[in-house]
Prior knowledge:
226 residues, mainly alpha, 86% helix, 0% strand, globular
Amino acid sequence: MSSVLAYLPHILVGTAILLTFWATLLSFKGSIHHKRRGRLYLLLLIPLLASVVPITLRAAAEEGPVRIVQLLYLSVVVAAAGWTAWRAVRDRDDLQAFRGPIYVGLALVLSAMAVLLLVMGIVTQNIMAFGFSIIGIVYGGAMLGFIGQAASQNWWLHWHLNGIALLFAATHASFTGLVLRTLNPAWDGEVLHGLTQFGVIALAYFFRQWLSWRYEAAALREHAIV
């Protein structure tokens, strides 16, 4: 019963986030509905991250240090993705504000935790920890690289879409595994967990490529015409 209570807030908020993600994605980009639903989605990330606290405490007692670091690390991943997706639009006319102290802090923490998880994954031969670490190494590294980099006119769109693609993975990975385990409890285990997590991450990569083609390429074409 205590296990259910520990996960229940996370499941409830996660379901609301999933519905809000698709409501935002399917609304007309730039419309008032898109903006309001997007803000609601990002606000829901706050109780989602808060709901990880009891899960982490439970993991500390039952699953060991690798799992604890992994949960904390994934929370930082979600925070970094949410921050870049939100601030890229909010600070679209102020690049230096976007690359402010919180951006730099998130980039440093994400990169450091990713390297820590990578080392722990190698030492303990934990393929999940090893695989998850790559996300932070790539995204955190990109954030660090952008700090002193010259920006294009549509830099904000690039980072907004980066954040959305990473949030797509975070929103759908755990939910997909939960649905599959509910449909067939026999599917529970590390193999299913790995397939669902890394499968959704791969899907998120192709989703990001589609977003680039649909919005970034379109913006470049419009700019060229003007």
